Amino acid sequence: MLTNDDSRVWLRNALNNTRKRYPFTIDVWVLMTNHVHLLCTPRAHNAVSLMMQSLGRQYIRYFNFSYKRTGSLWEGRFKSCLVQEENYLLHLYRYIELNPVRAGMVKQPSDYSWSSYQINALGKESNLCTAHPLYLALASEPEKRRANYRDLFKYPVEGQLLEDIRIAANKGMVLGNERFTAEIESLTGRRMTAKKMGRPVGWRKEKVNK
Question: What confidence tens digit (pLDDT) does each residue in 90-120 have?
Fold first, then answer.
């Protein structure tokens, strides 16, 4: 639980320090009151998993010491998904930085201090984020790039896109097109799409014919 600004400052600093220990970069982040969203690019196998495990242990020690408590804090392992950069990366930028708006905490993402929006859209200085090549490709000039980035936020993340992102993140699946998903399934040997709810098509006919 990120109960106040002190805890969010601590976690942001710890995240920055942990980033120096493991080979990965942070593209986007938001610190909410009861959860955290990170979009990361790993530079080595298991880098993000190791970082998250380390960060989680550090925060439990900090939180328990601060509030004179003992025991676990998080509800299970962190949730994650693989992302196809070309088709979904900038959508995830919007999804993550619009979290405070969807939660009704602020009217505009620029009003929320505990996210990377002020860095990516307004030019606030920070060493926590590393600009992704697809973000840099929005324009060659920084001011034009930020303006183009702000234009992406004229429309909310909703409908099927919002559902796809939530399913992929919550179930540890893939966010990408059919070809990308098939490639990941072939490499990992794991199903990377959610099963459809309800009985299979034609089940009544099959039952009658048996």
Answer: 999 999 999 999 999 999 999 999 999 999 9
What is d(CA 54, CA 166) in angstroms, rounded to the nearest whole number?
A: 25
The reply to whether the predicted model has a pTM over 0.70 is yes
Nearest to 120 by CA among 128, 8, 158, 35: 128
Please enumerate in sequence order all residues whose Cβ is within 8 A of that of 30, keeping only pairs 6 or more positions apart, or say none: 36, 37, 96, 97, 99, 100, 112, 114, 115, 116
| Residue 202 within a domain | no
User: Residue 156: CB partners within 8 Å, gap ≥ 6?
Assistant: 98, 101, 102
Radius of gyration of the chain (CA): 20
Q: Are 101 and 109 in contact (CB under 8 A)?
A: yes
Q: Which amino acid is at 118?
A: Q
Query: Which CATH number is 100's domain given?
Result: 3.30.70
Which residue, among 101, 138, 155, 145, has the nearest Cα to 123 in the 3D structure?
145
- What's the average model confidence in pLDDT over 180-188? 76
pLDDT of 209 > 60? The answer is no
Tokens of 93: 């930028």
Total domains in the fold of the chain:
1
Mean pLDDT estimate for the chain: 84
Q: Give residue 35's domain range.
A: 5-188
CB-CB neighbours of 194 under 10 Å: 13
